[in-house]
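Wed. Picked up where I left off yesterday with ABM domain-containing protein. The coffee machine is broken again, so keeping this brief.
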Amino acid sequence: MATTLELTRFTVAPGEVAALLASRPAMLANFRADREGFLQAHLVRLPGDEWLDIVQWRSAADFAASRAKGANRPGIAAFFAAIDQLIGVEGGVIADVQEDR
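Structure written out below (tokens, as returned):
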């Protein structure tokens, strides 16, 4: 299995940033409890009102299964509700592995 990254770019209305950040811990807890193959996630704030969520999955199949479940848990639904506009979702396989030094 090849480790897969999910790259989701979206906007958040300025008044919803606090709600997005407040909902993040519950969203991640729901992923750990309900999403097979979830490894880790990083939320990146980009210039303007754009954000990038980088989620690491054990495999492309795990990523696809998660997408099929959608916002099936309260923490996930609250995080998604804070998103103003979805710009795009992509998935890719990690091509190189670097060890922490």
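Quick read: The chain has a mean pLDDT of 94.
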